[in-house]
Amino acid sequence: MKRYLILAATVLFYFGAQSQGPSKTKAKKYPSLFWEISGNGLKKPSYLFGTMHVSSKIAFNLADSFYLAIKNSDVVALETNPETWQEDMNNYDMGSPNYRYGFNPGITNDMPSDFFNIRTLRFGKYEKKLEVAMFSKPSMINNLLYRSQSDNNSDFEEDTYLDLYIYQTGKKLGKKVAGVEQYEQSMKLMAEAFRDAAKEKNKKEKSFDYDEEFSPAKLQEAYRAGNLDQLDSINKLNSQSDAFDEKFLYRRNEIQANSIDSILKSSSLFVGVGAAHLPGNRGVIELLRRKGYKLRPIFMGTRDNKQKDAVEKVRVPITFSTQTADDGFYKVDIPGKFYHFGESFLFDQQQYADMANGSFYMVTRVKTNSLYWGHNADGS
Known about the structure:
By secondary structure, the protein is of the alpha/beta class.
């Protein structure tokens, strides 16, 4: 879980550097978040879109050209494929309480689990556990489906974040879905980036002496304007480690561009990646141009609420299957496989996120030791 959150936070660090504009006199080289890909033998255009990994309404300024591009594409892709996220995260044991509290997965904790102390034969009352279970809001589900900051921000947030919205729109329109990076590969590069940065001898000092025009506080205004030039300038200004950038940004740019090129050889594509990956000499736009593609900016008009409302009314068909507890205590029908993403030592939680429809299924089991309190199965 911690590694997953670090990845999201680091991506936002890159993206959060975006601001208003590099210069009021210099023409913008990357004036849009939205690009058409053509040439190089393509029979019809494909599309590249710079996303923002948040649910803020300001990121959802999506015009009809956005929806038409998805409708006209065969494949919709993100950095990684949301359909594999739960299995990937499960393989990394990100849902375990140990991961949340800082223990490394796959490494045995030295603290013995079978020691005997004064609390061993003590059984606490279970009402508080039940209360916590009833009101729990799993952070893993929030990270997967919603990315909401708090209940107080609901008026300023959409029901999901922009990346997943692109995936959901593609699924609802019957498109194939894909990723332009492999989850495990991205995690490995992230770990290597932090390692290389720690070893780097000539670290750059972050400068706080820059014009207000370059302030990260202008993020929303810049994103709404689609100003990728400023994003590139601010990233370079705020970068503290060339070694980190080499792995986490530039190497991933190459992987993304190569994957896009591979998909384009057989299918038309709408691909959304973090906007920080697009601009610059080593960004995805220039890497694709060097492969022979033509990329031109698409300037989106006003937000198209009708298209958005129409998409949100569609529900992706699902098929239910029976999931049984390991000890056979319960059976439930859900449209997927349960994952143990419980985040508390108080109870056992099994969760499944329906990524396409933005809903989730959860079973929470609380160990009550009720017989020791003289309570029977019906709670009396």
